[in-house]
Design goal:
Elements (H helix, E strand, L loop, with lengths): L2 H4 L4 E8 L6 E7 L3 E6 L5 E6 L3 E9 L2 E8 L4 E7 L1 H15 L28 H9 L5 E4 L15 E4 L4 H8 L9 E5 L6 E6 L11 H9 L7 E5 L3 H6 L16 E5 L5 H15 L6 H11 L1 H20 L5 E5 L5 H13 L6 H13 L5 H4 L16 H15 L8 H12 L11 H7 L1 H4 L3 H5 L2 H4 L27 H4 L7 H19 L9 H6 L13
Parallel strand pairs: 11-14, 12-13, 12-14
Antiparallel strand pairs: 1-2, 1-7, 2-3, 3-4, 5-6, 6-7, 8-9, 10-11
Helix pairs in contact: 4-5, 7-8, 9-10, 9-13, 10-11, 10-13, 13-14
């Protein structure tokens, strides 16, 4: 079906736009295949350029011969369009709903987005499994790169290459994969240079009610440990949930079969419960009549900050096992594609200073979320306002970004990037002009040919026109692990996301721009010299001015 068949009315004059933190604007509304556009008659300036895929829900209200469309976006912004003419209003609403219901992913905007300064091939080679292994192999020879999944026959949610113990051959991995949910057998995701310990991840084992064992799976985990070493299995389910999973064929490891692994359960919310928490949080944020006491009550009842605390605590536990207890860790969950990835990636932010740089953080997301098979299309299909029947949507990635923001706020000089990069990633995960977050796993992205047909988000974010705005002028590299506080007074609501459209950040933006200006001046300032007494200067050498952050 052609886009033109779905658009009942493509242009309406005299439309009034009401938007957050700005006055009403009157102009001409146009509906295109992928955007809503509104241009003001005053100077013909563009006032609205909204990607239709960013719309989470629309509400229609008619008064006399005119109508109002309330547009609720996935980034939590709410717009109102006052449209003269009931028919025009109804046609615009129906057109938006029809465009939102388009099923083929190939019809979405990323497959049409062609900016002048970016090429299709840029950014897709940011961090391949081969690159990760090359970096690892320069420090240790206990691991190897396996192509057992080169045709996705073992696991569709894993990349074609994975890092596994050197003593484990591919035949063993194929059998071990049958003992793990979705074929997600244990693979390495992080090697800690100081202690030489590792973080592995997998899905739950499948012993079932009969207590089936798998010698090959036991061998993979045994090979991951050095002689005499004790490892930790951190399960993101409660013990009760793990035991109940045996009825459906799942379960947990038998202690007798895995004698060198100590089991710890750290239950984390996921799925429907996490989605409901987000809906309640946005309901509280959008309630204008809420008193302070009622606001605090709503904030507590939605449990969002409680989920943040649980995530940070579990990630700190993993980091502590690796850095302080000097033990390797296997993080697992039911499917190993949601809470597991939150924990492994946030633990690396805590432990690894490279993950706190712009390029390092992007590589972390590529490795631990995209290549690791987080189902972005399913989880980000709807946000907090959708009227659709609940499905697989859940703000798993948003919770992880919120956890990163909490650490950024507590350690503002340890990150090369500003929180606005996290906000941009949240927006692109739910609705993007790029193809990076399309699909649910590497196999789907290969089938969609996103690398050949869409622009990489990393190429866009790292372009000269955008890169500088994300840099933190106060950044100083800290090679140590950073340990965030999870005390109630240390955790805050992420205003830049949840209250972004309620409270103006104008003064904060001005302050950041001033800081950046002062830092640029200090970078350009030449070091002090004293030509009259060079020997004295040489003996009392002053530190050189800090170098500017390197553009990625």
């Amino acid at each position: 079906m052609e886009f033109v068949e779905l658009i009942k009315t493509w242009r309406v004059d005299g439309v009034t736009l009401r938007r957050p933190l700005a006055g009403p604007v009157k102009g001409t509304l146009c509906v295109s295949s992928h955007h809503l556009l509104l241009s003001s008659r005053a100077g013909h300036t563009e006032e609205l350029w909204l990607l239709i895929r960013n719309i989470d829900a629309i509400d229609k209200r008619f008064t006399g011969s005119s109508g109002t469309i309330t547009i609720k976006c996935k980034d939590f912004c709410i717009w109102q369009l006052e449209i003269p003419g009931m028919d025009e209003c109804l046609n615009i609403a129906n057109s938006i709903e029809a465009l939102l219901s388009l099923e083929p992913v190939a019809h979405t905007y990323p497959f049409f987005y062609r900016p002048k300064l970016l090429r299709l091939q840029e950014g897709w080679d940011l961090c391949s499994p081969e690159d990760h292994y090359t970096q690892l192999s320069s420090h240790t020879d206990r691991w190897r790169l396996s192509y057992v999944n080169k045709d996705f026959s073992v696991c569709t949610s894993y990349p074609t290459a994975v890092i596994v113990p050197r003593t484990t051959d591919d035949a063993v991995l194929r059998i071990a994969a049958t003992f793990r949910h979705g074929g997600r057998f244990p693979v390495l995701c992080y090697w800690h240079q100081r202690t030489r310990m590792v973080i592995l991840r997998s899905s739950q084992p499948l012993p079932g009610v009969n207590g089936r064992r798998c010698v090959e799976d036991e061998g993979v985990l045994a090979a991951a440990l050095r002689p005499g070493e004790v490892g930790f299995i951190i399960d993101t389910r409660s013990l009760q949930a793990a035991l109940q999973a045996r009825v459906r064929g799942g379960g947990l490891e038998n202690k007798v079969r895995y004698p060198n692994w100590r089991k710890l359960h750290r239950p984390m919310e996921r799925g429907r419960g996490l989605q409901e928490s987000l809906v309640k949080l946005l309901d509280a944020c959008n309630d204008p009549s809420t008193s302070v006491d009622r606001w605090l009550s709503k904030l507590e009842s939605c449990r969002w900050l409680e989920h943040i605390k649980t995530l940070l605590t579990t990630a700190c536990l993993v980091a502590q096992c690796v850095d302080r207890e000097e033990g390797s860790v296997l993080v697992q969950g039911s499917e190993g594609r949601d809470a597991t990835l939150q924990v492994t990636s946030l633990a690396q932010v805590i432990l690894d200073p490279d993950c706190r740089t712009v390029l390092g953080f992007q590589s972390l997301l590529e490795r631990e979320w995209l290549q690791a098979g987080h189902p972005f299309s399913a989880r980000c299909a709807a946000s907090a306002y959708s009227h659709a029947r609940p499905g697989a949507e859940s703000p798993v990635f948003l919770l992880f970004l919120d956890g990163c923001w909490q650490i950024c706020r507590q350690f503002p000089r340890c990150f090369q990037f500003q929180p606005r990069l996290l906000v941009a990633l949240f927006q692109h995960a739910y609705a993007s002009c790029c193809g990076t977050f399309l699909g649910n796993d590497p196999a789907q992205r290969l089938m969609l040919k996103v690398k050949e047909r869409t622009i990489s988000l990393w190429a866009k974010l790292n372009s000269p026109s955008e890169h500088e705005q994300y840099l933190n002028p106060l950044y100083e590299r800290n090679s140590l692990a950073i340990w965030p506080s999870v005390a109630p007074q240390s955790l805050q609501l992420w205003h830049g996301v949840f209250l972004r459209w309620k409270q103006s950040a104008e003064h904060q933006e001005e302050a950041w721009e001033q800081v950046q200006h002062l830092m640029r001046q200090s970078w350009r300032k030449p070091p002090a010299t004293n030509s009259a007494t060079p020997a004295a200067v040489e003996g009392n050498e002053k530190p050189a001015a800090p170098s500017a952050p390197v553009s990625v």
